[in-house]
Amino acid sequence: MKKIVKNFNNLVKNTIFKVKNKTNNKFIISNFNKFLITFISVLFLYIFYLLIPILYDKDWVKDNIQNKLVDEFKINLNSIDNFSYRILPAPHFLIKDSKLLSNSSKNKKSIGEIKDLKIFLSQTNFFDKKKLNIKKVIIDNVNFYLLRNDIEMLNNSIIRKFSNKKIRVNGGNIFFKDNLDEIVTIIKINKADLFFDDKKLQNQLDLKGNIFAIPFVFQLKSKIDSIIEKKFSFKAKALNLHIFNSHIKKKNNPIFGNNVISSLNSSINTEYELIDGRIVFTSKNSKINNFKINYDGELSINPFDLDLHINLENSKLYRIFSVNPLLIEFFKSGLMFNDNINLNTSIAINSKRREDFFDDAKIYFNILNGKINLDKTKFINNDIGSLKLDNSSLFLQDNELILNTNLFFHIKDPDALFSFLNTRKKSKKEIKNILINLNYYFSSNEIKFNNIKIDNNEVSDQFFNIAEGFMDNNLNNLIKTRRLINELLSVYEG
Predict the structure, then answer these.
(1) Helix (H/G/I), strand (E/B), else coil: 422
(2) From the CB of residue 16, how many other CB atoms can be counted at a distance below 10 Å?
(3) Which of 23, 51, 292, 374 lies at a 20 to 30 A Cα distance from 230?
(4) Segment 94-116, tens digit of pLDDT
(5) d(Cα 154, Cα 118) in Å, to the nearest integer?
(6) Long-range contacts of 152-158 (CB under 8 A, 24+ apart)
(7) pLDDT, tens only, 199-248
(8) Exposed, middle or buried, 180 (CB in 10 Å: 0-12/13-18/19+)?
(9) Is the pTM of this model over 0.70?
(10) How sure is the predictor about 406, in pLDDT bands with cuts at 50, 70 and 90?
(11) In what helix (H) or strand (E) does residue 488 lie, and over which residues does it extend?
């Protein structure tokens, strides 16, 4: 302040008195000098005005700001000790290294750490500190730490009116933790805005970030009236994925909603109803790769328990054996191997396509206490027989996704099988049942045979060695598959 005053005095001396001396004590000031003096005077007064909050009692400011953050923005800080006032780029209070507390009246625990929190002020009247007014809040670099139970707290916060003054978040992370306080998911925040839209009368959250290194845009809108209406949109261009969800809750009535997941030529459209913590759902005009899909089920969130039944009409069954690499990476993340997830899924598939060996399939995918199996999965060829999976286990080993399972082949009509394989007459044997235990490695598409029995008899070493030809075999390569099976039949003693 002293330096500003001194510079101002020197400037006045160098302009006004210099002109006075040159005009023999006649005080003449040019229009430019008048403008310059006026401008500097106004600037000096404006800077002085902006610095007025420095004169406020510091303890009063802390208490006042802390209360306003809670009342207007629902931002509850543990303390604001590291506190300062700055006028650039606009008048604001800066709070450094603070902790964000939950707004729960029962448990005021820390849910976040904020590096810099800037409270920008309205410049209407700094002369009366009681009229101190917050214009907006900007948070730079924040880390949120959330447990499963905190999701319900956030959900309750969404149905309460936000401030119509914007909260901006620049950079940060959301760490989701399990009950053992271990991090299971990290969402990177690039930018987020939180505010109440006065024109549309709705809460709004706009967020740009990354999850699993995939950029996404998330938008949430919530109207609070006699009817609670929520809508959210999640878009990830890298995956060609768009998820849209909306639901409505009327007073004393269950929640009704609609969810749409779109990707390329697929659209999963679900109608659902929330009753006593359970979500009962069914499909509506859904399709996968332009093929119709029907499904229904029931979901409980806490703990996560899903019962899902899917029916695919006239689908390409052979594609079941071509697993999407993104799905493999998802399993390798370990999220599905969670003790708190229970999943019971069945997929019924009917195929009328010539390229499919099997006519029908019923695939079961089960998760119980962190263990995954495909037990009771069955593929049926109406003429030849069936293939059934049992005693199966899907697991991770050295970051490799592996399926270990027993395969039971029941041959209904050996002659139909030999006709399909173009088997030579001398290689034809009477075979009814085949039992194989194998490991399938998803990343490399390799098969390792552990045990083979035909009609409850052990096979020869030569048979076993030929069977290893399937190790790097593409099961969709029908010519090579036929050749290998015929080689096995030729060495089988029967």
Answers:
(1) coil
(2) 13
(3) 292
(4) 999 999 988 766 667 888 999 99
(5) 23
(6) 153/102, 153/103, 153/104, 157/74, 157/103, 158/203, 158/205, 158/220, 158/222, 158/230
(7) 888 899 999 999 988 999 999 999 877 678 889 999 999 888 999 999 88
(8) exposed
(9) no
(10) very high
(11) helix 478-491
Cβ distance 296 to 332 under 8 Å?
Answer: no
| Separation between Cα atoms, residue 243 and residue 221, nearest integer Å | 14
Helix (H, G, I), strand (E, B) or coil at 21: helix
**Spatial separation of the C-alpha atoms in residues 274 and 256, rounded to whole Å:** 7
Do residues 327 and 313 touch, judged by C-beta distance below 8 A?
no
Amino acid at 6: K
> What stretches of 355-469 show up as alpha helix (H) in DSSP?
414-421, 461-467
User: What are the CA-CA distances from residue 426 to residues 187, 421, 460, 489, 490 (Å)?
Assistant: 63, 14, 18, 9, 8
Q: Which residue type sits at 257? A: G
Q: pLDDT (tens digit, 9 = 90+) per residue, 364-397? A: 999 988 899 999 999 999 999 999 999 999 999 9
Q: What is the pLDDT of residue 23?
A: 47
Report residue 436 as tokens: 């194989």
Which residues, 6+ apart, have CB-to-CB distance to 162 below 8 Å?
74, 194, 195, 196, 203, 204
d(CA 394, CA 374): 8
